# Entry
Amino acid sequence: MAHRRRPHPPPRRRRAPWRCRRRSRGDLRPTRPAAAAPQPGRVRLAGPRTPLSPQQRALLRSRSLRHGNRCRPVARLRRLARWGARVVRAATHSQRSSHDAPLVLATLLGDQERLSDSTKDAFLNTGAIHLLVVSGAHVALLAGIIWWIVQGTPLSNGTRLAVMLVTVGVYALIVGLQPSVTRATILTVMTAVAFLTGRAPTMGNILGLAALAVFALNPCELFRSGTQFSFLAVSVLFLLSRWNWRREPRDPLKRMMIAYHSWPQRVLRRTGQALFAMTVASLVVGVAMAPLVAYHFHVVTPASILLTPLAGPLIAVALAAGLGVVTIGWLIPPLGWALGWLCGTSLHLTERLVQGAAEVPGSYFHTAGFPGWWLLAFYGVAGLWAALPRWRPDWHWQTSAALIWLAVGYASIGFGRVAPDTLRVTFLAMGHGTCTVLELPSGQTILYDAGSLGSPYAATKSISAFLWSRGISRLDAVVLSHADIDHYNAMPGLLERFPIGVVYISPMMFDPVATGGDLTAPNYLRDYLDAAGIPLREIWMGDRLRTDDAYVTIEVHHPPREGLMARDNANSLLLSVEYDGRRILLPGDLESPGIEQVIADPPLDCDILLAPHHGSPLSDPPGFAAWCTPEWVVFSGGDRDRTTLSQHSYQKAGAVVRHTAASGAVSFDLRRQTATKAATFRAN
# Structure
């Protein structure tokens, strides 16, 4: 009998001694050594590819940084936190349906990964996202609930405080020591210590201690939006706490009459007072935080003023019920089921309330936001106003100064626009996708394509952030080259954020032959544009787009009116933009047989070329380079290694090549009687 050799066991997968969590807009990619096996824990960090705002770019350059990342070693992971999170997830899943579980986990643990995009957008746009983020409010609610429970026990005050502090500390470890959680935990601990020692807690000192602790753990928290929101909201509430929201009558007789009211009347009165106080607090905090929210998220949320007092009690009920599910629900199953139902129902009502508010016109609107220097001056003066009440001028001087500074802020939003004698074209880094921004001398803005093969939300966010950083609040026209989704999947999101004048498309955009019979995405786009009332117009070879600039010519060179009997790439719109004797060519995904028809025409010299089809060899790089002889060629794609041969073809023709995967966003300024100025966001 032949001897059978035992097969070698598969190699054991080596575990990396550490992990990291990326906190930047860059890419985190595993390295691929040419001759060596991959080593655990080795990564290559790539910085952001598209500028977010002039202030953030200046901050990075002032520190000689390309990007910033923060790594957390595994050795510091807390076993208690992991065990507690597993217990909470198991308890919530056992007591609630799969439909409610994501919302329960988001509220109790801040775990938003299982939430749908529509739910996240509704909470973000209405300013209620803080209800789904484990913040200081959650810690304060938990501390209040525990303190209310232990009040009915025969324990001493010291033991009650100890129980409350231990519960708050365990919860903080489970959800993670985020800045808001750290701040609220320190506030709770110091307040309890003050009561134990018989001293009156000074909120200013306690808040300062919390700030020192947060910044000592990580000084970079100063620049994070969540940290800024947390401390600003608490500071405003601290100032507002001096207000007597109960409005008790001074007359002893009236107070005595109120004391003899029936308990339903007293409950209604207290409820009305509490709702009024919460509404006033929500209004004051919302107004104070509006400039900062607009700066970070480019949205203003009037709906949050009413949502917070309405949804706040529901979140408190859900948090209390969720705590009961985790602690005693597994001991008494019927009680656990009832508490789980109460928790899920409260959160379901909150979700319905938020989604209903998001559909109300005017509940939120997008804006470019004020510049950083404006915010520093605004909040600096506001801090002095709060700290030095004796130095405050008369109210009419305060009102006049506030209105003047507000006007200065709105006027400064457009400082990033181009000069009247300059045309700027910017090729954004969209991964495998395309978005070209044309800023005309007259102030008009035109987009050529707007999409990416990745997430539509990420594509929308990247494009919107760039437009807002330029002070652009309106798109006069959008040109969609063809029906591939990576060239227009950001359009629905852009329609929600910017007014759009008109959308131009190829005559083959909705042709079943060109699209391979799949018209699902194009029809969805058309329905979306129709619902928004945006004109949709076809353009073809020989057409010219009308602009407000006499020196700018935008002409269509392909496809013909009847189109080509080929796929949509061959029918891509070839756009020519001329200004001051210089030409920009935007060919979309033009390839065979459309590119042969274009090359058959007389040569068309250009200065700047967007490489057809992301630099694919199917776009005939040698022939197209010889036909248009570009000086600059920009490749828009996610991996420059796949376009090496195409890059060599254009370089042989004498062109300077830039790839958005390596250079990030590529921008060109065409100024009259001045040489073309090129700039990249990321150094090569």
In short: The chain has a mean pLDDT of 80. The radius of gyration is 30 Å.
